[in-house]
Amino acid sequence: MKLSAEVVIQVLKSIKNPDTGRDILREDLVRDLKVNTNTVQFSIVVEGRTPKFLENVESKARELISEKVGAPVDVNVTLETAMIGLGQDIMQGGKVSSKPDFGRATVLAIASGKGGVGKSTVAVNLAVSLVKKGYNVGLVDTDIYGPSIPTMFGIKEEKPRVNQDRKIIPLERFGVKLLSMGFLTDTNQAVIWRGPMVSNAVRQFLSDADWGDLDFLLLDLPPGTGDIQLTIVQTVALTGSIIVSTPQTVALADARRGVAMFQNVNVPVLGIIENMAFFTPPELPDKKYYIFGEGGARNLATELNVPFLGEIPIEVLLRESGDDGVPLMERITESPSAKAFNELADQTLHQTSLYRATMPSQEKIEIVYRS
Ligand SMILES: Nc1ncnc2c1ncn2[C@@H]1O[C@H](COP(=O)(O)OP(=O)(O)O)[C@@H](O)[C@H]1O
Ligand SMILES: [Mg+2]
């Protein structure tokens, strides 16, 4: 196997902290990753004392990577100590604001230019897939126009409560912790909500809720690239974004605007997903009908130089499970779209690990939370 960032990520995933059982990528200890022809270098950033299992991380990584590649690879690891306390309060525009404390959690916005392309369907099933893979996942439905996440999780009347510390307790379904704009507002009044009101509510969901120890926090954004979306992506400390599109030309044009919106505010686009990519009738498993056109989102990803995260086929059970309140990924593992979501979760894990591992180590203290 040729040496690549993929190989290195795979190997790093197998190096675990025996105390927590979590790998060093999940613990978010890796920075500055650089992979060349036959050399690899990265930093391990720890707070306080270096745990024992990291003492021989360099030789271990060298051994495992060389084994995978089938040739000696030179691996160089720098151990760094993070400055504790910095990054808690950041001066910005004369105001001091605290960034929500998600520790090592990856905060991802799921966005689309256009409505009805399956953004919520993707967010829900991605969340459940990540839970099935053993990650702690929160999901925030910020779509005030059509907060469909409660329906997709079978939540009707229940509202979140507040704990003794006056923190909102997210509802939990199928292992996913949830908060939705739908819990706050009568959706008929949504038209009067403006960007700042929505982003304030979203920020409160993030900072005033008891999320526990999350690995991922997914934000289902309202469709479009207007004032509300822009305000959210500017005020929430996002790790990155995922764009959902169908292969249709009209959807792609909007997806392109979505990518541009994130790039304009320096939020990395971790990938594009093509939903409703094709239809395979159950009785004709070898056929693929490209109802909305073929490969449009994949081509867009190539053109914009953004990772392509995969394609989700049209499936009746996927639509039904959304309406019935039990996500597809909670029901089956073998259907074409279930397999696609499983792969999507793997790709998302890979892209976020790669993104975090290649970040410069000092960027850890540069996360700016604007208000
Ligand atoms: N791949 C798919 N196959 C079948 N139905 C789908 C698929 N993706 C989404 N849907 C259905 O399309 C409708 C719109 O999806 P939704 O996730 O609510 O879109 P958005 O959040 O982008 O507005 C829903 O009824 C959903 O069940
Ligand atoms: Mg939606």
Describe the protein.
The structure is a single chain. This protein has two domains: 5-81, Fe-S cluster assembly (FSCA) (GMP Synthetase, Chain A, domain 3, 2-Layer Sandwich); 100-354, Rossmann fold (3-Layer(aba) Sandwich). Helices cover 34% and strands 23% of the residues. The chain is built from twelve helices and 17 strands. The strands form five sheets. The protein has an eight-stranded mixed beta sheet with strand order 12-13-9-14-8-15-16-17, sandwiched between helices. Strands 3-4-5 form a three-stranded mixed beta sheet. The protein has a two-stranded antiparallel ribbon with strand order 1-2. The radius of gyration is 21 Å and the shape is globular. The termini are far apart. The model is unreliable at 85-100 and 363-369 (pLDDT under 50). The site of adenosine-5'-diphosphate has 19 residues, from helix 3, strand 16, strand 17 and helix 10.
Look at the structure and give the CATH class of the largest domain. Answer: Alpha Beta
What is the helical fraction, as a range of percent? 25-40%
* Biggest β-sheet: strands ordered side by side in the sheet: 12-13-9-14-8-15-16-17
Number of helices: 12
Key attributes of the depicted protein:
371 residues, alpha/beta, Rossmann fold, eight-stranded mixed sheet, 34% helix, 23% strand, binds magnesium ion
Short description:
This protein has 371 residues and is of the alpha/beta class. The protein has twelve helices and 17 strands. It folds into two domains: 5-81, GMP Synthetase, Chain A, domain 3 (2-Layer Sandwich), CATH 3.30.300.130; 100-354, P-loop containing nucleotide triphosphate hydrolases (Rossmann fold).
